[in-house]
Amino acid sequence: MTLRTFQIHFNRTHAVYKSGEVITGYVEVNLTETKLLRGLYMHFVGRAMVNWTEIESRGKSKVTIPYMAGECYFDQKITILGKEPTNDDDYQLSLEPGTHKFPFEFQLPLRVLPCSFEGTLGYSRFFARAVVDRPWKFDHVTKRGFTIAGVPVDLNTIPNAMSQVYAEDEKIVCCLCCATGPISVTAHTDKKCYVPGETVYISATLENKSNRSVCTLEAELIQSVNYGARREGVGAPGFRTTSHVVTSIMYEGCGAYSRATWVQKPLVIPPVPATGLEGCSFIDIKYYIKFTADVASTPFDVDLMLEITIGTEPLEGSFFGRSMESQDAVTTADIHADMAKSVEDLHSYEQCHQGVREIRDEEDNEYVYGGLSFSPLYNFYKTPTSTPMPPRHQQVIASSGDKSTTL
Fold it and tell me: How many CA atoms does the CB half-sphere of 200 hold within 13 Å?
């Protein structure tokens, strides 16, 4: 085999970029013998796509109708060796055996670019291809994805960011002939806005006046994605929503005619994209804390949905136990600078909680080199270990009558 290695390397270790920045790196080619070619070029692509199908009845038959939407943010080729792709089959050059490194640079457009996102029905994806152009044979192709950080979501600009999110519900789980009393649940978060790495503290109270026990109490971080597309790409609009559990915590419930309480139970937010996906017109991301009381021997559980906002820029002072407003006004500027540096020290980029996805598309065949498995990297703030939660925040109390038990 003549071509031993064919890879794209980015100079930035984490390969996360913002609108207008210059992507630099090199293409590595390792040959076992001399190879003839016309040139080596790169193809930089940024686009978003949504695609699903629906089954419709037409008389006695059924047909599959595609729904599609797409946006292209950039699509540009740059030649880094030899000639641009043409119909001139006479031109050729040769590469000697060994390792060759060809540097490249590409400036991202100065426009709004959505955050990289790989979803169930669609994506916002950015990648580079390198192509060894051989007009008389099949081209050699290698591909590698990179992450676009997207539009910053500064939580300090969100109204009521420090306000608790509250919900309540009541449900009678028995039929009318044997109804014994409702199950009442209230739940709230400690605030409304978070960044990945932060902890959501969830408090809840369950009053069980029924003769059914509550098996478990569970809190889940739900990512809900709204997709929009058009029938066959040009017709009537259609919409789909998918949801999945990002992470969760679960504890024991309580018996019949009893009570259970959560006091600031912690749920850490893993690396996820920010709320919204600004810059993409047909994908919208939302987040919820779903609190569920699983009632025994019945499908009628009690569910509460608490909508939260996940951003990229944390609230001032959110990692330090007090806000800037509580500081001495004389030293506010110095404290602000120290906090900014400390928060920067906590910041990193981490792989998406969902792991890797294959980014193969219709242009890629089975002979493509490089990494077709890719996972976006997202903002992540490592919470300081110097401020642990007080012990009382690690308790769940279940009570029955005048007796109470710490779980």
Answer: 35
Token digits for 327? 């500081």
Q: How far is the C-alpha of 208 from the C-alpha of 172, rounded, in Å?
A: 10
Give backbone dihedrals phi and psi of 104, rounded to 5 degrees, phi first.
-145, 160
Q: For 372-400, write each residue's pLDDT tens digit.
A: 899 999 999 987 643 434 433 333 333 33
| Distance of alpha carbon 324 from alpha carbon 336, whole angstroms | 8
Neighbours of 237 (CB within 10 A): 11
Q: Which amino acid is at 149?
A: A
Q: Are 230 and 67 in contact (CB under 8 A)?
A: yes
Beta bridge partners of 50: 69, 122
SS3 193: strand
Task: Please list the residues that pair with 66 across neighbouring strands.
Answer: 53
- Using alpha carbons only, give the angle 275, 281, 285 rounded to the nearest 5 degrees: 20
Q: Measuring CA to CA, how many Å separate 309 from each of 286, 294, 304?
A: 8, 26, 17
pTM for this predicted structure: 0.86
What is the per-residue pLDDT across 119-171, written as a single tens digit (0 to 9) for each?
999 999 999 999 998 877 888 999 999 999 999 999 999 999 999 999 999 98
Look at strands 61-82 and 214-231 and give their pairing: antiparallel
Other C-beta atoms within 10 Å of 186: how many?
A: 16
φ, ψ dihedrals at 326, nearest 5°: -90, 0
Separation in Å, CA 303 to CA 47, 71, 93, 168, 235: 37, 37, 67, 9, 37
